[in-house]
Write a structure and sequence with these properties.
2 copies of one chain form a homodimer. Chain A is an alpha/beta fold. Chain A has 5 helices and 11 strands. The first copy, chain A, has an 8-stranded mixed beta sheet with strand order 6-7-5-4-8-9-10-11, sandwiched between helices. A two-stranded antiparallel ribbon of chain A has the order 1-2. In chain A, helix 4 links the parallel strand 8 and strand 9. In chain A, helix 2 crosses helix 3. At the A-B interface, strand 3, helix 2, helix 3 and strand 5 of A face strand 3, helix 2, helix 3 and strand 5 of B.
């Protein structure tokens, strides 16, 4: 998606060779029109998949997910980061490790919002090691629902996330693929 | 806003006389079309205020805020809940107390995204005691910016939030005003 790729090149801040900060349009300040367009492109790609629900994780996944949800005309569900003490039998839960932050969060969704008839489109802001998307996929599996695809705003293609997801048989669409952050420069795939 | 009010009556779950759970369309699963309409109504109300930025707080504020942001064609900024250890001089920070959860969170915004020329529309999912909106207003003040209005999805009118905000000279628009949750029933203002 050209407008997004241009934006990543212009406004992305390289923190180190693995971390790209996009606080000006996605992770802190959000460009709503850009996210609307992101939602449109993701929807167009997965339009034949009979999606019944969009699933993401708080907080940065919500903006792209709700825009896809708007275009698909299906509900958007966001997994919550919760302390294990709040768990009950009414929730599906899984642990998601963040290599970037070196933390592990327990995330939950209420069982009532996902069932075996659901065809789920997972959406997230970043794909790096794939831990978040895999965690969301485990929640879909726990509900005996089907993951119909994964839509990602920015993929760090030099990390193994896509490979892990595809080896699970999952289809991944990324709207911007970053090939490298070496030399303090954002290099996109195909450049 | 009639569609929202009907939805609150139909799908709101009364937990106790102070807590209303709307996990099916706002706080866990989100109805994107309803939020799109919420954004439209808030935008229409504040359209003459020359809003330059929408400000909310993660996570449940993001959906209504980004829809208002989309209609207003201005950026949406969400305050992050952060540990004090992550604070630096590049952030404005304030503490927000939640009477519902009986917790106090430090929330931050990066200084670079708010300045003295900004006219800010604060948006949040709920108004109860007003602590979240007041906290966001303090962040706006810290940046020497102007709070031009407050848009709320659901107001619990039996709690003192509106009174506190109005005594600060702030204009509050709520799209659904709950008069009482007594007797396990959602009673709206005007019913």
């Amino acid at each position: 998606m050209r407008t997004l790729q241009d934006r990543v090149k212009e406004d992305g801040v390289v923190i180190d060779e693995k971390i790209l900060k996009v606080d000006s349009f996605l992770n802190h300040q959000i460009d709503a029109k850009l996210m609307y367009e992101v939602g449109q492109v993701i929807t167009e790609h997965f339009k034949d998949k009979k999606i019944t629900k969009v699933l993401t994780i708080e907080a940065s996944g919500i903006a792209p997910a709700i825009m896809a949800s708007l275009h698909l005309d299906v509900p958007c569900l966001f997994a919550k980061k919760a302390k294990p003490s709040t768990m009950t039998s009414e929730f599906y839960q899984t642990d998601i490790h963040s290599f970037t932050k070196n933390t592990t969060s327990t995330v939950v969704i209420a069982k009532q919002f996902l069932n075996e008839d659901d065809h789920v489109l997972i959406i997230d802001d970043f794909l790096a090691n794939g831990e978040a998307s895999l965690g969301l996929h485990r929640l879909v599996q726990a509900a005996n629902a089907t993951t119909s695809g994964i839509g990602i705003v920015i993929e760090k293609s030099f990390q193994p996330g896509r490979e892990k997801l595809e080896s699970e048989g999952l289809e991944v669409l990324s709207l911007c693929q970053v090939a490298s952050l070496l030399g303090n420069t954002v290099k996109l795939v195909g450049e």
